[in-house]
Amino acid sequence: MTRRTGPETLRRAASPARLLTLAVLPALLPALFLSVLAVPGARAAESAPTVSLSKKEAGKGGEITVSGKGWRGEALLMLLICGQATPERGVIGGTNSCANGAGRAVTTDEKGAFSKRLPVAEPPEPCPCVVHVATVTGEQASADAAFTVAGHPTAELPRRTGGGKLAVLAATRLEGDSSLLTWFGAPPARRLVFTVGNLGPAPVEDPVFEIGTAHGVYAPQWEEHQWRGTVAPGARARIALPVELPAGAHGDYQISLRYGKKVLAEQPWGVGRPWGVTLFWVLLCMVVPAAVFRIGMAVVDRIRPRTVGAHRTAGARPGPAVSKGLPRRTTPVARTARSAAAADADATTAVLPWFTPDSAPSENRPRPTTKGQA
């Protein structure tokens, strides 16, 4: 009996292979899926920014070299030595825990790499410390590298508060008044008062808030403020943070409150114009020309030539002195004339001889004799 080969025979022979393939394929699908997902993850790990240090420990006054790769090309970075931080938890207290005065800025090259010397300084918070590198503009990115400041105090990190969630429960307000110096251009200052509640299951300790000030169409300028205290789960707390504008600021400002990456509240603030500065400039524009005019007139009066009459008057003989403070006595015209005549008579009489009654010439002279007597 001969065997026939045909499509039916081929199908019967191939059926076990198909069954084996169908049985193995479901086991291979998860491995294939994971391999596909692992490729983007590896690429992402390769593109993540990294930081490396030339030394892991140095004392105050020393210097280390900070290098990095995987950053955005031609990005401006900030290098800081921060306390109370680890690469795993980051900088807990924000930039207030960093030695900001000794920080440095660097720009990456086209490939996203950089190398910069950083002086070693003691941060305001105890170690563990890190070298914190973060972008200044553009998309936010940061990386930390563990570092030890020799001779700097060391303390334990605070407990994690990742389960806490703060929310503003009441409307924010600005408290405080302007002083007289603000009218003359001093920086306006207020206190941003708000009430927060912890909606999470874990307490929040020493939260770091950010206050932004925006004027007109410009983006807000953020400044970090750390509040000292603990907000228990389900509890609330009243917080007051200082807000200060630059000197001479006036117009409409927008004050924003941010915690983490979420803006909690916004508060408008209308600042009056410092009219004292305007008044000062107006008075200055009036007083200075007047003073210059007076000085110029005094100089002209000193250097101008004198007239002939003025020289004669200057060389004339001074008249009789008049007592100061006494009123001048006026004499009528008639009395003055009689006084002048009396003065002339006295002057004439003064030059004549004075005779007494006994020595008068008429009495001592002999009487005339009669005719014929000598």
Structural account:
There is one protein chain. The protein is of the alpha+beta class. It is 28% helix and 30% strand. It contains 6 helices and 20 strands. The chain has helices at 7-47, 180-183, 275-303, 308-315, 333-351, 361-364; strands at residues 50-53, 57-59, 63-69, 76-82, 85-86, 90-91, 104-107, 114-119, 129-135, 142-150, 166-168, 173-175, 189-198, 204-205, 208-215, 221-226, 230-231, 236-244, 251-259, 262-271. The strands form 6 sheets. The chain has a 5-stranded mixed β-sheet with strand order 2-10-9-4-7, with no helix packed on it. Strands 11, 12, 13 and 18 form a 4-stranded antiparallel β-sheet that branches. Strand 19 (251-259) and strand 20 form a beta hairpin. Residues 1-14 and 28-45 have low confidence and may be disordered.
Number of discrete helical segments = 6
Structural class: alpha+beta
Let me know the number of strands: 20
Provide the low-confidence segments as ranges. 1-14, 28-45
Beta-strand content bin? 25-35%
Roughly what is the average pLDDT, rounded to an integer? 76
How would a crystallographer describe the biggest sheet? 5 strands, mixed
**What Rg is obtained from the alpha carbons, in whole angstroms?**
53 Å
Fraction of residues in helix? 25-40%
Q: List the helices and strands in order.
A: HEEEEEEEEEEEEHEEEEEEEEHHHH
N-to-C CA distance? 239 Å
Structural shape: extended
Enumerate the strands of the largest sheet in spatial order, edge to edge or round the barrel. 2-10-9-4-7
